[in-house]
Specification:
This protein is α/β, with parallel strands linked by helices. It has 7 helices and 7 strands.
Length: 188
């Protein structure tokens, strides 16, 4: 990473302003290490404003493997360079969470993961939830035993929604805003 950073500084010193694709080739590491090293190295460069594209490869994998592609797109999305999927913001859960946060997050992901560029906050409680999901487009926040508040941005738009219908209400809210697309529409 330091060598790549130095190269970017040298381009700047020389007055060379061209698009640069960062290529990182990993050898002699396991896939789980790849998923740690690549985001750490490439992410640091993109966060600092270096690079216009990314090409990752891990020796021993087939060309254009799904691991390489998903890691590529994940890094670019996390650095806000290229948005290619739905983003979820969720709290780690605590004693104030009065619904099954993991199950609910999985249900919301299952029905919304095709909405490219939409950020959805799924928070266990009203205490810290709204602050933690400050930049979300939509929010699903627990406010009591099996009661949910739905947000559009930082604004509460539905209060005391029963937890068993809150995911459907969230989808309806997204549809009302004209953002919803059926999954088959996004695959074309």
């Amino acid at each position: 990473m330091a060598a790549i950073r130095r190269a970017f500084f040298e381009l700047e010193i020389q007055g060379i302003h061209i698009p640069v694709v960062i290529r990182l080739n990993y050898q002699d590491i396991h896939a789980d290490q790849f998923q740690l090293f690549a985001p750490t190295e490439a992410g640091a460069l993109f966060i600092d404003g270096f690079g216009d594209g990314l090409m990752l490869s891990l020796a021993g994998l087939p060309v254009q493997s799904s691991l390489e592609n998903s890691t590529n797109f994940g890094i670019l999305q996390a650095c806000r360079v290229r948005i290619s999927k739905t983003e979820y913001i969720s709290c780690p859960s605590c004693g104030r969470t009065l619904f099954d946060l993991q199950e609910t997050t999985a249900r919301i992901r299952q029905v919304t993961d095709h909405l490219k560029g939409v950020k959805i906050g799924i928070m266990g409680c009203i205490v810290n939830g709204p602050g933690e999901m400050a930049d979300a487009d939509y929010g699903y926040v627990g406010i009591g035993k099996d009661k949910i508040a739905l947000y559009r941005g930082q604004e509460v738009v539905k209060k005391s929604v029963p937890a068993d219908s809150a995911v459907d209400e969230l989808i309806q809210l997204i549809k009302e805003d004209g953002i919803w697309k059926d999954p088959q529409e996004t695959n074309n």
